[in-house]
Automatic annotation (TrEMBL):
It comes from Micromonospora mirobrigensis. Substrate binds at residues 53, 146, 276, 307, 391. Its EC number is 2.6.1.62. It is found in: Cytoplasm. This is Adenosylmethionine-8-amino-7-oxononanoate aminotransferase. Its cofactor is pyridoxal 5'-phosphate. Catalyzes the transfer of the alpha-amino group from S-adenosyl-L-methionine (SAM) to 7-keto-8-aminopelargonic acid (KAPA) to form 7,8-diaminopelargonic acid (DAPA). It is the only aminotransferase known to utilize SAM as an amino donor. SUPFAM superfamilies: PLP-dependent transferases. It comes from the Bacteria. InterPro entries: Aminotrans_3, Aminotrans_3_PPA_site, BioA, PyrdxlP-dep_Trfase, PyrdxlP-dep_Trfase_major, PyrdxlP-dep_Trfase_small. GO terms for biological process: biotin biosynthetic process. One of its GO terms (cellular component) is cytoplasm. Belongs to the class-III pyridoxal-phosphate-dependent aminotransferase family. BioA subfamily.
Length: 424
C-alpha cells in the first residue's frame, strides 16, 4: 500500500487510542523501527522519545529479542494455559519473583496492563471474601492516578480531572484521597500524611485494597511524589487487613532509577502489577504478582476466577525472558542515570521559557508542564520537524526514551521537547 492508501484506509476504518472516528488529526504512517529510531513511510527518521509508551526500553529490532521470538516460533507460538505449562512461562515467573521486591511469590500472566489490574482487584476481593470479610469491596487510591481502560482500573483513575471522568455515573464508587503534594525530593507533608492515613482508617471496614502507582503517576499527570507516602500506606493498610496493590506497569524494570519504584520506599506491596517494558515492548504481556498469604487465602476459598485465552503466551514469555536477561546483564542503572542526566541538562533551561509551569526529571523520565493545554497536532509536528517522536497530552510535554538512547539522541529529544513547548 502507498502511504496515501494507508492513510485513507486508516481514516475509513481504524480506531486510534482516545480518538474520534476519523481522528481529529491524521496519524503519521510508520514503516519500520530500528534502534531508537522510527522510520516513517515518507523516509523521515524520528528518535523515539516515548519508548512506545514506556515499553521499548532496549529500542527496536534488538538482535537478542528478535532471535528469542524466532527461536520460540520454531517450537510453538501459542498453546492454551489451562492444564498445560511450558518453560518460557515458568522461567519468566521465576525471574519475576527474583527481580521484584522480596515477598512476592506467585505470578498470574495477563495479556495487558489493564487486565493485570483487573486480576489484582479480583485477587483482593476474592481474598477478602475467603478470609470472611465479604463486605470489603471498595478500593482506595489517591487522585491523579491512571490504571488502565477497563472498568475496575477506570474506577481508580481520577474521577474528575482524569481520562475516565465520562464514566463517573457508571463506575464502582471508590475512596479517594487527594493527590500527594510536592515532588520526589520534597519531604512528606505531615498534614497530608495524617489525612491520608485517616481516610484509610475511616473506610477500613469497606476497603478490600488500596491501589497506587508508586512514586510516579503516569498518564494521570506525570507527577512524582516522595516515597514516604508509600511507607505510610504500607503501615496503615497492614494495620487494618487491607491489601496494598502497587501498579508498576509504567514504572517497573528500571524506569525510575530503581528496578521497581517500590524500592525507593523499601516496601513490598501484597500485589504488584507489571507490564509494558516486560517484553521490551515486543509483545503484549503483563503480570500480577502476589504474596503467599494472598494466594493461600484465595485458594482456601476456591479458584482464582480468571483465565484469558492468551494467558502465558509462549512467544511473549520468551521475549520477556530475553528482555529481562538483557536488562540484568547490562548496567541498566547507569544507562537510566545517563539518559536522565541528559534530559535534565536539556530541559532545565526551559524553566524560563514562556508558558512553562514546571520541569521535572526522575530516572529516565523528563517532563515539562505548561500553564495551558498543549495543541497536540502543532506540538507533535514541531517535534517531528526536529526529528523526534513525542506524544504530549493535556498540559504535558514529556519523554521516557529507550535506555539505550545515546547522549546525542537524548539531546535531540530535549530539542524536540523545546520545539513542542514553543509550538504548543
Ligand atoms: N497502569 C498504568 C500505571 C499504566 O501506565 C497503564 C498504561 O498506560 C496501564 C495500567 C494500562 O496498561 P495497558 O495499556 O497495557 O492496558
Amino acid at each position: 500500500m502507498t502511504p496515501e492508501e494507508i492513510l485513507a484506509g486508516d481514516r475509513a476504518h481504524v480506531w486510534h487510542p482516545y480518538a474520534t472516528l476519523p481522528p481529529g488529526s491524521p496519524p503519521y504512517v510508520v514503516d519500520s523501527a530500528q534502534g531508537v529510531r522510527l522510520r516513517l513511510a515518507d523516509g523521515r527518521e524520528l528518535v523515539d522519545g516515548m519508548s512506545s509508551w514506556w515499553a521499548a526500553i532496549h529500542g527496536y529490532r534488538h538482535p537478542v529479542l528478535d532471535a528469542a521470538v524466532v527461536d520460540q516460533l520454531g517450537r510453538m507460538s501459542h498453546v492454551m494455559f489451562g492444564g498445560l505449562t511450558h518453560e518460557p512461562a515458568v522461567r519468566l515467573a521465576r525471574t519475576l519473583v527474583e527481580l521484584t521486591p522480596a515477598g512476592l511469590e506467585h505470578v498470574f500472566l495477563a495479556d495487558s496492563g489493564s487486565v493485570s489490574v483487573e486480576v489484582a482487584v479480583k485477587m483482593c476481593l476474592q481474598y477478602q471474601r475467603a478470609v470472611g470479610r465479604p463486605e470489603r469491596r471498595r478500593l482506595g487510591t489517591w487522585r491523579g492516578g491512571y490504571h488502565g481502560d477497563t472498568f475496575h482500573p477506570m474506577s481508580v483513575c481520577d474521577p474528575e480531572g482524569g481520562m475516565h471522568h465520562l464514566w463517573g455515573d457508571v463506575l464502582p464508587r471508590q475512596v479517594f484521597a487527594p493527590v500527594p503534594p510536592g515532588g520526589f525530593d520534597d519531604e512528606p507533608d505531615p498534614a497530608y500524611l495524617a489525612a491520608l492515613t485517616d481516610t484509610v482508617r475511616r473506610h477500613a471496614d469497606e476497603l478490600a485494597a488500596v491501589i497506587v502507582e508508586p512514586v510516579v503517576q503516569g498518564a494521570g499527570g506525570m507527577r512524582f511524589h516522595h516515597p514516604g507516602y508509600l511507607r505510610a500506606l504500607r503501615e496503615v493498610t497492614r494495620e487494618h487487613g487491607i491489601l496494598l496493590i502497587f501498579d508498576e506497569i509504567a514504572t517497573g524494570f528500571g524506569r525510575t532509577g530503581r528496578m521497581f519504584a517500590a524500592e525507593h520506599a523499601g516496601v513490598t506491596p501484597d500485589v504488584l502489577c507489571v507490564g509494558k517494558a516486560l517484553t521490551g515492548g515486543y509483545l503484549t504481556l503483563a503480570a500480577t504478582l502476589c504474596a503467599p498469604e494472598v494466594a493461600e487465602g484465595i485458594s482456601a476459598g476456591g479458584v482464582l476466577a480468571h483465565g484469558p485465552t492468551f494467558m502465558g503466551n509462549p512467544l511473549a514469555c520468551a521475549v520477556a525472558n530475553a528482555s529481562l536477561d538483557l536488562l540484568r546483564a547490562g548496567d541498566w542503572a547507569a544507562e537510566v542515570a545517563r539518559v536522565g542526566a541528559g534530559l535534565r541538562a536539556g530541559l532545565e533551561p526551559l524553566r524560563a521559557a514562556p508558558g512553562v509551569a514546571d520541569v521535572r526529571v526522575l530516572g529516565a523520565i523528563g517532563v515539562v508542564q505548561l500553564d495551558h493545554e498543549v495543541d497536540l497536532p502543532r506540538a507533535t509536528a514541531a517535534a517531528v520537524a526536529q526529528g523526534v517522536w513525542l506524544r504530549p497530552f493535556r498540559d504535558l510535554v514529556y519523554a521516557m526514551p529507550p535506555y539505550v538512547t545515546d547522549d546525542a539522541d537524548v539531546a535531540r529529544i530535549a530539542a524536540g521537547i523545546a520545539a513542542a513547548v514553543e509550538a504548543g
